[in-house]
Each structure stands twice: as structure tokens, then as C-alpha cells.
Amino acid sequence: MKIPDDQEEFSLSPLRMEYLGPLSMILCSMDPWLTMEYTPEAFESYLLHGDPGLARQVIMISGQVAGVLSVRNPWLFGPLIELLALFDGFRSKGTGARIIQWVGNRYKPENLWVTVASFNRGARKFYEREGFEKTALLDDLIKPGWSEMLLRKKIGRRR
Ligand SMILES: CC(C)(COP(=O)(O)OP(=O)(O)OC[C@H]1O[C@@H](n2cnc3c(N)ncnc32)[C@H](O)[C@@H]1OP(=O)(O)O)[C@@H](O)C(=O)NCCC(=O)NCCS
Q1: C-beta 123 within 6 A of ligand 1
Q2: 116 within ligand 1 shell (Cβ under 6 A)
Q3: Is any atom of ligand 1 closer than 6 Å to the C-beta of 70?
Q4: Spatial contact of 35 and 23, defined as CB atoms under 8 Å apart
Q5: In this model, does residue 157 exceed pLDDT 80?
Q6: Peptide bond before 79: cis, by omega within 30 degrees of 0?
């Protein structure tokens, strides 16, 4: 795996209230959410609503907010990565791969799961390279006419 070292290591921080508005605006302005016409209000509510099974965190790199990670656990013999987004300037430098590795180390799961919009070829390529395989096509999941792929990375039994 190619991991260039021109980008500092990431860290994860709790989602603070003052981040909500700016993060929601950025997420709506980038694909796949731009194409799917997400609204800032929908993101704010997703990031804020009470949900003890959902760990929502900010990805920090070099003291800057570089993205968002949201992981649902427990899910299906392993966690579901519900939201992974790296902002402009922080992509294609190996951070996404390191975050997948971090989730694996943190939860020590038998499986890792993620959904990806069918049209999001870049992310599909990324997850494929990280060892995820397509398990199902979920039509009309988020909005009528849009399909999501459910991807699974089998890690195997640890007990
Ligand atoms: C998908 C994502 C999390 C990957 O993180 P990353 O740090 O960019 O990933 P890495 O640097 O570890 O790997 C990048 C590789 O993934 C693929 N890739 C990822 N996103 C891509 C994109 N938008 N277009 C083309 N290729 C992409 C490429 O193979 C790329 O390899 P390259 O840099 O040699 O071209 C990040 O690109 C991102 O946030 N994208 C926008 C939001 C998104 O689609 N999130 C996933 C929703 S399910």
C-alpha cells in the first residue's frame, strides 16, 4: 500500500457545537452529497441527534479540521462506517487508508461495513483497494432513484 509521508498523522476530536454549521456546509458542497442534494440542516441534525451507538468525530490534521468520521457500533458482527469525508487538500495522501486501519484496530471487528453511492466511483475504488467487497445493492435507500452499495471487509473471527 502506498502511504506517502508528506501529510502529518491524523487525530480524532469530539464534534464540538461550533463545528456543526461549518462542517455541514462543507459536506453539502462536496460529492457525493452535493450530487444527492443534501441540505446543511439534514447534516446538522445527523451530526447532532442523540444516538449512543454512533461515534461522530472530527478528523484533525496539522491543527486543522480535515474531515469527519462517523462509526456505528455494534452493527453486524463489526462496525458500520456511516460517514467518512476528507476535505479538499487532505485527500489522496493516504489518510483514508490510515483511518480504515484505525477503525480496524479500535473495534477489532470480524467485519467492517460501509455504504457507498453507486455513482461514487472514486470512493468505490478506494474501498476496493482497502479490501472491501460488494455484498448488496440497496435501491432507493437515501432518495428515490439513488442506489447505495453495501460493502464488507471480512477480517475473520478473533475469538
Ligand atoms: C474516499 C476518501 C475517504 C478516501 O480517503 P483518501 O485519504 O483520499 O484515500 P487515500 O489517500 O488513502 O487513497 C486514495 C485512493 O483512493 C481512490 N480515490 C479516493 N477518492 C477518490 C476520488 N474522489 N476520485 C478518484 N479516486 C479516488 C484512488 O485510488 C486514490 O488513489 P491515488 O491517490 O493513488 O489516486 C476521500 O477521498 C474522501 O473523503 N472523498 C470524498 C467523500 C467520499 O466519497 N467519502 C466516501 C463516502 S462513502
Answers
A1: yes
A2: yes
A3: no
A4: no
A5: no
A6: no
Residue whose cell numbers read 435507500: 141
| Cell output for 58 | 472530527
Q: Regarding beta strands 147-154 and 54-61, do their DSSP bridges make them parallel or antiparallel, or are they unpaired?
A: unpaired
Give me ligand 1 centre to Cα 91, in Å: 6
Cell of 74: 455494534
Q: What is the pLDDT of residues 68-93, one digit of tens each?
A: 999 999 999 999 999 999 999 999 99
The C-alpha atoms of residue 63 and residue 40 are separated, in whole angstroms, by 24
Fold of 10-154: Aminopeptidase (3.40.630)
What are the sequence ranges of the domains in the chain? 10-154
Ligand 1 in reach of 80 Cβ (< 6 A)? no
SS3 23: helix
Confidence of residue 14 (pLDDT cuts 50, 70, 90): very high
Residue 1 has pLDDT above 50, yes or no: no
